[in-house]
Design brief:
about 90 residues; alpha+beta; two-stranded antiparallel ribbon; 2 strands; about 10% strand; extended
């Protein structure tokens, strides 16, 4: 996918985001559903490609609720948004 984007010259304007909702059990702890907070269910993939930013890794604990404020911040919007929900 990124090769095609680069070939058309769109890479410097294209953001890429890949993530999942949460992990899944495959029989660990005798469970199949993803309703328990074991390690296998809380680690999820999350990758971003942001034009102008190089590769970085972070070890901080985050949650899906952190995605929207992060994207707004990266887009340069410094206005006051309430992401706390209802």
């Amino acid at each position: 996918m990124w090769a095609r984007i680069a070939r058309y010259g769109w890479r410097r304007h294209t953001w890429g985001i890949y993530f999942s909702d949460n992990g899944r059990f495959w029989g660990e702890h005798h469970l199949r559903k993803k309703y328990a907070g074991y390690e296998e269910a809380i680690h999820v993939p999350f990758r971003m490609a942001v034009p102008g930013l190089g590769r970085r890794s972070f070890d901080e604990l985050v949650a899906n609720i952190d995605i929207a404020p992060t994207l707004v911040d990266l887009a340069g919007d410094d206005s006051n948004h309430d992401f706390a929900g209802p």
